Structures are given as C-alpha cells and as structure tokens.
Amino acid sequence: MKLIVELTNKNLIKNYKNINHVNYLVIGCNNLSLNASSCFSLSEIDEIYNLVKDTNLRLILNCERLFSDNDLEYVKTLFDLGFFYKFEYIMYSDFGLKNLLETLDKSLKFIFKASTYLTNKYDVNLYNKLNDFVVLSSEISSSELIELSKGVDKNVIVDVFGQSACFYSRRPLISNYFKYRGIDKDLSNNYHVIEELRSDLLPIIENETGTLILEPKHHVIVEEFKFLENIAYGLISLHNLSMKKCLCVVKTYSDFIDDLNISKVYETFKDNNIDVYKGAYNIKSVLLKGGCNE
Amino acid sequence: MNKIELLAPAGNLEKAKIALLYGADAVYVGGKSFSLRARASNFTISDILDLCNFAHGINKKVYVTMNIIPHDEDLNDLEKYLKDLDSCGVDAIITSSLFIIKTCENIAPRIERHVSTQMSITNSNTINHWKQMNVSRVVLARENTLEEIKHIANNTNLELEVFIHGGMCSSYSGRCVLSNHMTDRDANRGGCAHSCRWNYHLYEGSKKLNKKNQFYNIGSKDLMAIRFIPNLIDLNVASLKIEGRMKSTYYLATVVGCYRKIIDLYYKNGTIKEEEFVWFENEIAKAENRLTSVGFYNGIPTINEQLYDTRCEQPTQEYIGYVLDYNDGIATIEQRNYFCIGDLVEAFGPNLENTRFIIEKLIDCETNALETVARHPLQKFYINCPVKLSKHDMLRKVK
Question: Does domain B5-305 have CATH number 3.40.190.10?
Fold first, then answer.
C-alpha cells in the first residue's frame, strides 16, 4: 500500500517528498472542496504545482462537494483556464462534475469518493469500472473492510486516517443560529457541538458549500493493514493538526507500512497528543430490522 | 403533455389503499428488505401483490423503495426479491445503489428504475450520468431551489420527481451518518435516530454560546410546497412526492386529498387564487403536527425554515372515525379517537366537500345501546349524519 496525503500547508511539501510511500498530495480549493483541512487559492495551487512538478509527488484535487448547475459554470471557467490539468486525479462525489469534465476532456482521470456510499463490493466494482480509483466508505465495520477488500477489483483506496464528515448540509446552520439568537461571531472561528446527553465534541464548520459536522476524533486503520493486500492506497486526511503533528502522522504511517508495528503507531500518536479512535470501523452498525417493531 | 403524478407514501396496505382512494396516482412502499423505513410496518410480497392488483385495477401505480445504501450482507437475496417484485407487477423500484439498478435491469427489465433522493441529485449533469445508467426517473435532492429545478428541467428529458410535502433531513439525504456515530443505528440502512432533531450545545473553544435553558438546533421544519404546485406543473416535472411512510391514514387522507384537489384545480382553471391557497393550507393544518416551511424552494434556508426551541405542535383537528357504510341518514363508523354526543365534527372524503354537523345520536353497533361517549378505538358505532357519506370518508372533531 502507498499513501495519499492531504496537504495542509505548502511548507510541508519539502518534508513529504522525502517520506517513503507518499505518492500523492490531496489539494483543497475554495468553492470545489469538501471537508478539506486547508483550501488553497488558485495562485497558491500554481505555486504548489511548481513545487512538486520535479519531484515524485503528484497532485489530486479535492473536488468532493455537491454542485448546482450554477456552480458547474464556475467549474467550466476553471477548465478553460487549464486548472484541472495540474492534477493527476480529480477526487469527486458528484457525478455531475465528472460528467461535465469528461465532456470537456475525456483524458481527465477521476477518483470517486463519497464516504457514505461505497459500502459493498458489488457497487465498489461497478464504480471502479466508471472511474480510475474509488475510495471505500469509512462507514463500514473493520470486519466488513477486510472482507470487502478481498472481493474488490484493484484501484481501491482506503481512508486510513482522518476525521470524516458525519453530516453535510447545504444549510448555513451556524450563521442562521447566530442570526436567530443575535450572536455576532466570525464564521471562521473554531466551533464544535456537543449533544445534550453525550460528551463527544464534534467540530462543526460552515463555509460557502454549507455546514459540515465531523467525527469527534481521527479514525485510524492499522490493525487491518495486513489483510488489505488488494488495496492500492491509504488516504490520510489531517484536520485540525499542527504541521508537526501532520508530519508525525505521515511518518508514522510510512514506517508502519514497512514494519507493521501496531503498538508503535498508537504509542507515537499518544506521545504526540494526537487523539485517535476506530470510528465507525469499530462498530457493527445496527439495522433495526426484525426487532424494532416487536 | 402528461398530467403530473401525485405520489404518496404508505407504511402498510391500509394506508396505501387510502392514499390511492384519496387521489394519489401512485404510492411508494417499502418491502421487508432493502427499505429505509425500518420502523414502518412494511410490506410482505403478498401485501405488494395485493396492492399492485388493487392499484392497477384503478389505473394507478406501485413503486417499491429499495433505497438503503447496502452492505454486502444486505444483497444476498437481491435477485429473488427482484423476481418476486416483477411477478407482483411492481411498476418501479426507487434505489440508490448502482448494483441494484444494474441487477434489476438484467433480472427484471420491465420494472422501471428510479434513482432515490439518497443520491443527492443537484444538477443536470448528474442526471445525464444517471441517464447513461438506463434509469427512467430521478428524484431530485430536497436542497434544490425552484430556480435550480427550473434550470434542471430545461436541460434534461429524463423524468423528474420532486418532494412537495413532509419531513426534511437537515443534511443532504444519504450524506448524514450522525445517527450511526451517536447511536450505532445506521441511517442509510433504515435506522435513522433523527439526531438532527436533538438538542446540542454550541461551543467556540471552551466557551458555550447557547444560554442556559437554550439549545443549539440544526433540525428543519417540515416541507409544505402548496404554493409552488403551479410552478412545478408548468415546469413539466413528472411527479410530486409526499414524504411520510410512518404517517397515519388520517394524515395521508388529508394531505393527499388536498394536493389532489389543488393539482386538479390548477389544471382546470390555470390559476390558483390566494383564498384557495389559504383554504388548502388551513386544511392541511388539520392533520399536520409539525411546523412547516417552504424548504429550499425560495432559496437557501433562513431562520424561518429552521426548527429552533423545539416544541411539539398539535394538529388543529382530531381524527375520530372512519366511515364503513351509510344508509338513510345513519353512518356506520369505526372509532379512532374519543368523541361524544354534542361534538361538532367535520366529514371529509375523496368525493365529499367538507361538511360539519353535530353528533346527536350515538349507537353501539354490537349492542344497539344508546351511548353518550365513544371511548374505545376500533369500536363500531352508528351516528346521525345529515349528508350522504361513503365508505372511506373520515370524520374529525372541530376544536
């Protein structure tokens, strides 16, 4: 397995290019991305492109939001500027984006990533035929992940580290609430929510695409690695982490690919105050069928 | 141009038949497998066969939801299930899985494939994608504004289905797993715990922003798009969908009946007057127990479309009885809720103008004893009624 790493700061490129197994960097961009820990401007993306073009690193665009027809007009404008050619792959969740870009240029390459959808091998294999890569849902249990990985074709990516979005709304849920309560606050501050009877702190973010609520901690996949021989890449997303911690996570996974030392991974994260859990991989989700009515 | 379809939900056979009798052109129901409303009664294959026979007998249609986002274990009996649906004569399945779409195309090509709102369809290019997958209809995301629906409708020739009434997810449907993470109940496999309707505290760092006795809420008011029906008809949308497979027969009869009348009125007159809109809104309020709004139809939701300081709303009128028969001024009714001699009630039905009268006579059908109070649900009574009622009409108490 090789690594795909989300870029949170362009100063990290010089470090990543020297870390084994890191092949791709995922780049967030305003108005296109979803749940990106950093969104770069078009000029910054030019700069990033120039920084990596003579290295072994390649770029993937986080283009995962949902688009209206009006939003897709902006995508066309970016296409006319040659923007999408800076990326080896475009990671998306809206079929409309892919449909549009393919009509503009069939040679563009795509990764389908809709974190709630690809939960069975049959859909994974069908979507694999329509894309260059697909990312498995992070809403499957650990045992399902292992079973699924055996039954899928190649070109599959597993989300091995990160804080997925549990909730994606088009509604401006923070600014509406501020308006309702007469609160004057900047949306760019860091907010989180806690359910009244629970204790998990869930980060909540509002931007031009709507509102996201994230997992409380970073989910990790390590114990399952030895069973994931059929998986091409592990995806690492790096929300709310300092540059030092980002580097620590990526180095830890790079070393882990070589030594498969599970306890070392957890010790390193603990020593560096990186709060992790198994996320949905640790639960066998409840169907509520054949029992709820009784 | 085909007349627009009114599509209603049904959680069981009785509800499905009521929805069709009160004016739905088609109903959508969940089977025992593959359906998102795990807590609805849901239909056996035998129920689906019964419903198809009933619906087709009055030139109406039956769609079966297969809208879970399936895991491997859910798909074991898919082919058999599709063959069973085919033998029943089901008109379409509503699904979010490409694998289910392709399997249906191979196993039961007669059955139409409709793409569920779980796929969050928000632009015409996405519809082009689904057209290439050989589906015949897409259900648009509830997040589309009227302007966006208009643009989509003008740029596709695939059938469009839009929601006009009922509950709204606060998230894009299919993209919310709050329930999974908070309760281990998989929202996309029928176990949604409605976590978006719960109370939260909002923090900026360690500072709580909501005051004591107040909460941070993200829930949505329900959708009521009565005033947009003329626009949607003009846009040549194929189907208008009501949400709510968990709702009661009374709710379905009231809501379906209203939308039936407003659609027919617009086709007949080419316009709906303000006082008519108000009448329909008041009519729906008699069965609606939640606050409603126009959702995204007017644009991105403001505070008016959100549910803050959650409280339970009550319908303005209460369902008291279902009409079984009528003879010479006496109706036989099956009781639903408490009522008594002297109550002012309103009768309504698929072919009945709303009519109010006072209950003056109440006789137990079993014992023929005169009663003053009806307090046992499903008990049968004779009551006086000055207008001619028909089987399937309903009575509600005027508060």
Answer: no
* Number of other CB atoms surrounding residue B360 within 10 Å: 11
Report DSSP state, residue B43. B
DSSP assignment of A272-294: TT--EE-GGGG---B--TTTS--
Q: How far apart are CA A55 and CA A50, in angstroms?
A: 10
* Whether pLDDT at A285 is above 90: no
User: Looking at the 3D structure of chain A, how many domains does it have?
Assistant: 2
Judged by DSSP in three states, B22 sits in coil
User: Does A172 lie in the same domain as A42?
Assistant: no
- For chain B, the structural domain boundaries read 5-305, 317-398
pLDDT tens over chain B, length 399 residues: 689 999 999 999 999 999 999 999 999 999 988 877 665 668 999 999 999 999 999 999 999 999 999 999 899 899 999 999 999 999 999 999 999 999 999 999 999 999 999 999 999 999 999 999 999 999 999 999 999 999 999 999 999 999 999 999 999 999 998 988 888 788 888 888 889 999 999 999 999 999 988 999 999 999 999 999 999 999 999 999 999 988 999 999 999 999 999 999 999 999 999 999 999 999 999 998 889 999 999 999 999 999 998 665 666 678 999 999 999 999 999 999 999 999 999 999 999 999 999 999 999 998 888 889 988 889 999 999 999 999 999 999 997
Domain of residue A112: give its range. Answer: 2-163+217-282
Considering only CB atoms, B171 lies closest to which of A114, A127, A168, namely A168
Per the document, the length of chain A is 294
Residues A157 and A176 in one domain: no
In chain B, the residue whose alpha carbon lies closest to the alpha carbon of A293 is B39
B:276-295 residues touching chain A, CB 8 A cutoff? none
The ipTM estimated for the assembled molecules is: 0.94
Residues A230, A124, single domain; the answer is yes
- Examine the domain organization and report whether A67 and A139 are in the same domain: yes
Best residue in B155, B218, B220 for a mutation probing chain A (most A CBs within 10 Å): B218
The CA–CA distances, whole Å, from B102 to A197, A226, B78, B171 equal: 43, 33, 11, 27
Q: What is the DSSP letter of A100?
A: H
CA B375, distance to chain mean position in Å, is: 29
A19 in Cβ contact with A251 (< 8 Å): yes
B141 close contact with A: CB closer than 8 A: yes
**Cβ contact B204–A190 (<8 Å):** yes
Same domain, A28 and A78: yes
Which residue in B175, B210, B212 has the most chain A C-beta atoms within 10 A of its own C-beta, making it the best mutation to test that interface?
B175
Give a yes or no: residue A141 inside a domain: yes
Instruction: Please choose, from the candidates B345, B325, B327, the residue with its C-alpha nearest in 3D space to the C-alpha of residue B390.
Output: B325
Say yes or no for a CB contact (<8 Å) between B71 and A117. Answer: no
In a domain, A292, yes or no: no
Architecture of the structural domain at B317-398: Beta Barrel (2.40)
**Which of A69, A99, A204 faces B152 most closely, judged by CB atoms?**
A69
* The model's pTM: 0.95
Instruction: Specify the amino acid at residue A94.
Output: D
